[in-house]
Every structure is written in C-alpha cells, then in structure tokens.
Amino acid sequence: MESRTKVLQLFKTLHRTRQQVFKNDVEALEAARRKINEEFRNNQGETSSEKIEELMKIGLDVEVILRTSVIQGVHTGPDRLLLIPRKDLLLDNVPYRDMPTQKHKP
User: Fold this and answer.
1) Which of 25, 52, 77, 79 has its CA 20 to 30 A from that of 8?
2) In this structure, are residues 67 and 15 in contact, taking their beta carbons and an 8 Å threshold?
3) Whole-number Å distance between alpha carbons of 32 and 23
4) Local structure of residue 89 (DSSP, 8 states)
5) Is there a domain that residue 106 lies in?
6) What is the chain's pLDDT, residue by residue, as a tens digit (106 residues)?
C-alpha cells in the first residue's frame, strides 16, 4: 500500500510541475498531461516491486529535469525566439575569477 501512495504522490507532483513549467502554453500543457497519464496507465498493472522502483526513479528524474531545465520560448519573428525563464531558474550572476581565492589561515 505504501508503494501505491508513493506512485500517486509522484503522479500529482508531475502534474503540478507540468502546470508550472508550461504555464500559459495550452498545447504543451495538454501534451504533457496526455504523456504523464499514458505512461502511468501503461504501467498500471505492474506488480514487480523492482520494476515499480525503477519506474519511480525515472518519474522522479523526469520531474527534476522538467523543473530545472525547461525554459519556455515564443517565436517573435522568422529568426527570433523570446525565452521566458521562470523565476526559480534564474540564478545570481557570479563573476568569473581566473584564480580561485584561497582562504587565509589565522
């Protein structure tokens, strides 16, 4: 029963991530919804705990990739693409240093 709870939790997490990552993109939202539902439906009858753990790992990896690597883009011209990164993807710009600083010992 614990396995079922984890699977349902992953299912919900993937759908929440899908809604955040593809916000305002109806086609991408629908395609991701269909793909998530299809993958879970295809493996609904799986009883092997090893296979379930493997599928859970894949699902968790997909969620991390979606959350950390996907950026929306909008075509604004024939050769132009406007990227729309989410706030959680933006990092502070850290200046490059040719030589790393060494910590001084007291």
Assistant:
1) 25
2) no
3) 12
4) G
5) no
6) 588 899 999 999 999 999 999 988 899 999 999 999 999 999 999 899 999 999 999 999 999 999 888 888 888 999 999 888 887 777 766 666 777 666 666 5
In terms of residue numbers, what domain contains 34?
Answer: 1-87
Residue type, 15: H
Residue 95 to residue 106: CA distance in whole angstroms: 27
Phi-psi domain of 13 (left: phi exceeds 0; alpha: psi -120 through 50; beta: other): alpha
Tell me if 1 is assigned to some domain.
yes
* 47 is a domain residue: yes
Looking up tokens 């009883």 gives 47
Asked if residue 104 belongs to a domain, the reply is: no
Q: Work out how many domains the chain is built from and give that number.
A: 1
